[in-house]
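On clarity, I found the account of how folds are encoded harder to follow than it need be. For illustration, here is how one protein appears when written out as sequence plus structure tokens.
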Amino acid sequence: MFNEGTERPFTSELLTEKRKGFYHCANCGNKLFSSEAKFDSGTGWPSFSEALPGAFKTKVDYSFGMKRIEYHCAKCGVHHGHVFDDGPSSTGKRFCNNGLCLLFIPET
């Protein structure tokens, strides 16, 4: 989580999670995404159209020969993934998140 790595695609159990609730940082518990923002991007990683306000800090990442926006938990600094401008909703964003960095807490 702190080495800015990426898990293999299609390995996260959260890909098929459909219940209502919130996704939190697996390291510190910070609330990051609502289940209402989750969608199936077909990329193999949990994807969201928007994050909760103040959940992340971003930086530019030039690895893999391209410019990407990397995001980290605003509370503890854990790397969660990259955000792209090809999302399906009105935000146009796709937060492509490492499933290992997320903890899902269903609505009760």
